[in-house]
């Protein structure tokens, strides 16, 4: 059979499996589902089912045995447990980018990293202008965050017209922003610390590092120590458990077991060996063929880093399950009382202005300064509209901003005000960012025609 002969698909593959794969691989879908989940939460929380909605997330759920029981409501399990998986994948992305991505080359990383720093500092300062000395002051970290899924989702809605350089710039900016968010959570949104539990976590962290150094590549081993040891210890220590997820991700091996040239040579030899094996003309393969195929599978596994394998396999879970569930649990705002007064509260205004104005000033202002000083250059294919549009997309704080809101406040009225500021700023930023990048694409098209 010629190599280019299409392989016939079974009905289940053709009508179920393949469409699902195409859906998952579509870059816009995760952003659309996240937005839909938030919209559904907002609608339900302002419907006759609002009380049932809020009561559901307060349902207690316990794990453990005997005297060792850990009880939390669903809302906490989502924010401390499921979001730890989200931050684990963020940690994997950070490590990959630092080792071999946009953040590995200082010359390429300077502009997006500096833009990210400006996009964190300026929003926090603007927020404090409205909230210093008030009970809402602790929310200064809320407008610092960028929702990478939402921002890239808006960007990918425009398809291939968007310059690749803009996608890379925004991705690197958002990842650098994630580093800042993790540090802010670790140092400023951590409750009282239990040193015994923290020390236990340090022991498990040391074991994970030793496993990496000594060449352990079994992901199950890292899962058991990372979840059963490091994450649980951090959860009990008072340091937010999502920090444990990022630390665990940085211990995942990022080295291949065999280099590319060795892999290619061995794969070619196994391919020839498979072709030479005598077939049995049956639907099943022979024992000899099965043995060769297993060798190919093991060889391919050794040619891929555990870090990339985990990141690739876990991304659909995070994008299509964890983040939508988080949005459902945290996006509901029951609008009662004087809505205008809540929207115009110092907290909501501080978040709105911090995200919508502070992010843009920080990202675009710092970038413009570096470009003016010739310390960096605008990536090829990007223009000023793309840069300003990226600043607005960076102002979409949704997921991370909601997460920090839950850490910063316990008072229901402050949480509602914060969510209103986040939602209004994120929606406005996404619309303006989309419009500006659309203009930037049109300008690029006009320049090509000249």
Question: Care to give the gist of this entry?
Answer:
This protein is mainly alpha-helical. The chain contains 18 helices and two strands.
Write the layout of secondary structure elements.
Blueprint: H1 11-25, H2 29-44, H3 50-57, E1 60-65, E2 68-73, H4 74-100, H5 106-131, H6 148-156, H7 164-188, H8 195-213, H9 219-237, H10 241-250, H11 260-276, H12 287-302, H13 306-330, H14 339-343, H15 346-372, H16 384-393, H17 398-408, H18 412-449
CATH topology of the largest domain: Na+/H+ antiporter like fold
| Poorly predicted runs of 5 or more residues | none
* Proportion of beta-strand residues: under 5%
Rounded Rg: 24 Å
Give the second-level CATH assignment, the architecture of the largest domain. Answer: Up-down Bundle
| Topology as a string of helices (H) and strands (E) | HHHEEHHHHHHHHHHHHHHH
Description:
There is one protein chain. The protein folds into two domains: 31-190 and 240-255 and 305-449, Na+/H+ antiporter like fold (Up-down Bundle), CATH 1.20.1530; 260-301. Strand 1 and strand 2 form a beta hairpin. Helices cover 72% and strands 3% of the residues. The protein has 450 residues and is mainly alpha-helical. A two-stranded antiparallel sheet has the order 1-2. It contains 18 helices and two strands.
Can you tag this structure with a few keywords?
450 residues, mainly alpha, Na+/H+ antiporter like fold, two-stranded antiparallel ribbon, 18 helices, 2 strands, 3% strand
